[in-house]
Give the backbone structure.
Amino acid sequence: MADEQVGRVLGVEPATSTQFRVVIAADNYLQLDDLVEVRTQVPKAGEVHLYGLVTEVAARYEGARFESDMFLIAEEGSLPAELARSASVQTIRVDPEVWVAPDPGEPVYRVAGASRDKALYADEMGRRLPIGFARDGEPIWVDLDFFDGRKGGHISISGVSGVATKTSFALSFLRSLTAHPEVVGQAASNVRVLVFNVKQEDLLWLDKPNREMNEEARLQWARLGIPAEPFPSVSFWAPPRGPVGLVPDTDSRIEGVSAFSWTPREFIELGLLRFLFVESGDFRQQLTFVEERVRSQLQKLAEPVEGRPGVVRIGTRIIASLADLVEVIEQHVDPEDSEPEQSWTGRVQGGTAQAFMRRLRAAEYRIGRLVRAEGSRVDRMAEAVTVVDLHKLHDFAQRFVVGALLDEVFAGKEKTGQRLPLQVILLDELNKYAPREGHSPIKEVLIDIAQRGRSLGIILIGAQQTASRVAPEVVENASIRVSGRLDAAEAERAEYGWMLPSTRARARLFKPGTMVVFQPGIPAPLVFTFPYPPWATRPEEAVEADPFEGL
């Protein structure tokens, strides 16, 4: 495709090296997010190409002085005037890098083909991954080096719940990642994705085709080089339904879903007790100090039981459930008629020990079914994508599961010290697990992942309604930032300083499926859309396989 001339650089006001205006030809147009090019001759430097992004368009009558002149010009034609349409352009690239202003009157072209790739820095992307379509209907990409840890890592996705399509975009990105091994490189075959499902059972159908897919969406996926098919390799996990047996607690789907839990031995050896004390108030009341002492005692005193791999013995007591463990802890936290040195908590005040036990009993009620002798931990390596359903769990239990699994991932990677295979984590409601204020074991793990994870091959895709409520250490370490529709007040927060003023204004009006992305390789945010998902997002969308097919 050849570049198309659409106008000329406006000369009635100064053009600068960073922004200029274009007067649009009468037989053409420019719209928001169009990419344009100006070729200007610079003394001693030769021809310089300036590439820009249209940030605003305007129209006016030249010759009109008063508002009422509009009637005389448009309806009666008795007042001479000319319609003038213009566009404001933000310079995003100069080649060669001689930062000068374009000369007034120079032709302005809408870019296409190789010039468009140049404007989007696609020629400098070592591994470009398609994520959707720009306003001109052509694909846009992210530089994978800024995702998988080579130059940067992590993605932060923000937007209003229900209309920002944060999870939908994250899954679309993951589908592109798994469908382009030639882009991902040597890590492609071993990439593992851990997805936490926190809303309804929508993500339990990623392996089923979507009956509402249309031909237009299929063509869009094909243009991105991705089969319009569901995820090919997925395992599903849910908490057990009750205290006995390993039947997954799901409603819309049972087939293909496994129940997860931890044995008492795993609970003690992995130190999961700390994920029962994740509220800010726990730190203020010194409950975490008590927890550390108790956790240390459990790991020191627990002994395996022959023939029962998931069960432990503490003294003469067999621990086969969380209830058993709580009873033993209660006997040693504040034992009657004993010296403080004999207590697991030492010389803490009685009120603190009692508060600790109240917290522990509440935890037993909420997560008791997750700790059992016949536990079955989540197998994160069985399939490329692992979905862990949490939506039926109490908020307290959700935090426990997220903390336990994140800690397992991080500890495993630290032990090997190897960046490959890559472990990608998709976590929604990030502000709940890594809030801006306060401290918790989960927040500490997430900050570790944000700061050191990319060197270990742990990549976080975090989604939240409001980035301003997430710990700054987590958001600031995300190389790629994406946003859907934003609340008007949230859009003005400093966390969205990467947006242009015009983009912030538009983000309040984005439709579902429209997003804006910023990445280090391109000095401007880009608005894009992504195709309708080919995988089911609700039970009624799922296309079940025909049992008689092929007979």
